[in-house]
Amino acid sequence: SMAGFDDIRRHLEVFWENGAQNHLAFGSDFDGAEMPPCLHGGLADVPALWEYLCRHNYPQELLKTLFFGNARRFFAGHL
Questions:
Q1: 3-state DSSP: the chain helix, strand, coil percent, rounded to 5?
Q2: Which of 31, 58, 64, 78 maximizes the CB count within 10 A of its CB?
């Protein structure tokens, strides 16, 4: 079967169960990577992923770190 938002959520759970809350960040090479069908629209599909995760009752602060906070902190420390 093709990967969907449920699959992404299950992967996130494994990372978070192993303490990756302050390390895991979304990012993609939308113009070169093979994306799952749920993200074939590229960046235009990211808000739908956010809404999907919100509907599963993840704290917004956790989602903010996942979607941009961890990446921002990483790049701020390496530029």
A1: 60, 0, 40
A2: 58
